[in-house]
Amino acid sequence: MRSVPGGPFDGERQLPEEVERNLLEKYNLNDPVHIQYFNGIRDIVANPIGEKFGPSIRLADYNVDEVIAQGFPVSASLGIFAMVFALLLGMTSGVISAIKRNSALDVGFMAAATLGISVPSFVLASVAVIVFVFWIPIFPAAGWGQLSQILLPALCLGAPFAGYIARLTRTGMLEVLGQDYIRTAYAKGLATRRVVVRHALRGAILPVVSYLGPAVAGILTGSLIVERIFYLPGMGSHFIEAALQRDYPLAMGMVLVYTCLLYVMNTLVDISYGVIDPRVKVE
């Protein structure tokens, strides 16, 4: 970001040289980049919670920690709703496709999954706004605070991941359904529903669990555009503004928060392997 031409105080109206020099000194931007880096690491480690990243350059009277505290609940709610939607829709359609292999349901679900994977979330969001806001006014166009205002963005954000999960679930389920213990369960007279839910599903979702780490990364990066389209006051909107206006402290704070979230989610995915499959040992 520092290598991009321009700076936080560049604009159509040129600041007096003395004023710009004082601003650079205030935000410690007149030091070499490597000195700024080590000073930033020191501040994050030494400063108390609430003052980790210092003041924002562009948002007057706000520090970076306050901006993150305000935007994180919005982005977290959007991501949770999108992930729940992707898991419910993807796993349900994948299981049905595997059980009804080569049927019309299988072909239809897999065609919808391929379409969901192929269409970017920002294209899907734009089409959804036209259809479900203007043509069929079911959802509001923007805003935050009500359940109806989060459903459409969450559906648009989670749809591509639902397609991936559906294909992974179908593949895993088809592999498990051919195992000896599944044939034994059918031979004992168990109903198809009980065989699938109690015996087959647990082994079939291992590929889905592996995909949850990259899916969280995709939802975090995809939420930047979706929040911008639906004008949601989340971290994504602040991050885009920070990048466009060269607000270095705010951009750095957002990147560190996203990085910590990815590390936490990937760690939870690895731990969940040992819970789902007893053959996997966590060391």
Please report the distance between the alpha carbons of the first and last residues.
38 Å
Poorly predicted spans: none
> What is the overall pLDDT average?
84
- List SSEs in N-to-C order: HHHHHHHHHHH
Coarse shape: elongated
Write the layout of secondary structure elements.
Blueprint: H1 17-26, H2 33-46, H3 64-99, H4 104-118, H5 121-135, H6 148-177, H7 180-187, H8 192-204, H9 206-230, H10 235-244, H11 248-276
Helix pairs in contact: 3-4, 3-6, 3-9, 3-11, 4-6, 5-6, 5-9, 6-8, 6-9, 7-8, 9-10, 9-11, 10-11
Account of the 3D structure:
With 283 residues, this protein is mostly helical. It contains 11 helices and no strands. Helix 3 (64-99) packs across helix 6, helix 5 (121-135) packs across helix 9 (206-230) and helix 9 packs antiparallel against helix 11 (248-276). It is elongated, with a radius of gyration of 24 Å.
Short description:
The chain is mostly helical.
